[in-house]
Every structure is written in C-alpha cells, then in structure tokens.
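Quick one:
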Amino acid sequence: MPQAPNMSRKAEFVARFTPFLQEIKDATTGTKFEQWLNVKYGVESALYRDLARLITEGVKEGWAADIEVAGPRYRRSQIVTPSAETFFFSATAVLMDSTDNTQNNAEGGFRANEHLHPYGEINLVVPLNKGAALAGPNGWCHGGWTAPEPGSRHFPEVKGGAVISLTFLPAGRIAFDFKASQD
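Output:
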C-alpha cells in the first residue's frame, strides 16, 4: 500500500507543473528565455519552491530519479512522456552527485554523457548541498533555471555535491547517439 501516497504526490507534482508548460509551450529556449525564467520563476518564486520541494520528495520517496545510469550518484527517470495534456513536453528527473567522483574533472565536477537538444531543453536546478551547481549554457547554476537552445549539445556536469534537475524537453526530444556530421 505505500504506492498510493507516492502516486498521489506524483500526480500533485504533474498538476503543479502543467500550467507552467501551458505558459511556455510556444517559447524558444536560449539565453533570453533562461533570463526570463530566472526573473519570473526564480528560486524565491512559489513555482520554483513548490517544484523543488516536490521533486526532492520524489527522489527521497523513490518515484523520481530512481533508475541508475552510472551508479547511485547518477540516476534519472521519466516523470511524463509527451502528450496533449503536457503540451507535448516530457519531464525527466535527474540526480547527479559529484561527491567522491573519480573522473578528475576541473573543480571536482561529475560529467555525464554528451547529448544533443534538437528542440532545446529547460532545466529546473535544485541543489541538494550548499554550493552544488549544474553547468548551464551561461555558466554554473546554483539554483534556478537553465535553457539550452535548440541544436545545442553538452556534457551535463555538476560540482559541489548533489543536484536534481527537472528537465522539460519539447516533444521529448533528446539525442545521445548523434553523429558528428550533424553539427
């Protein structure tokens, strides 16, 4: 019976971000959009606080970022697939933790696999440790939003501890096995 509270919390979470998706459904990601997100829905906003709380609870309860990609310090899970109800966005929870990593990256960062964003990406960044940050197209994000533009690619990277990223993808599009000729 413990699944009932988890499923209702997940439904509450989806219900909380769906109006946001409706608001941004026709936006184009990039620096200008990222700045707008951080002004309108920055870390002090009710939307950010609610989504950060709910996704953090989801990770603790095991219904978000529960699938290991590279051990327990790098996990993810799809919360919703693209549908008319989500304005054709997918939502994925990602947990990345640079603590005790052995990659020897600058600043002790943990780096995940490179990927491409055919239609861009929107990330709600929730640091779980003081000083933890996710690398975004405009530098390290210690909480708030990043919004890589359509066609961009990167290696997701965190430093300073653990970060949860709630990732919204237009049409659910992400490419991990793209060819260099697609540059």
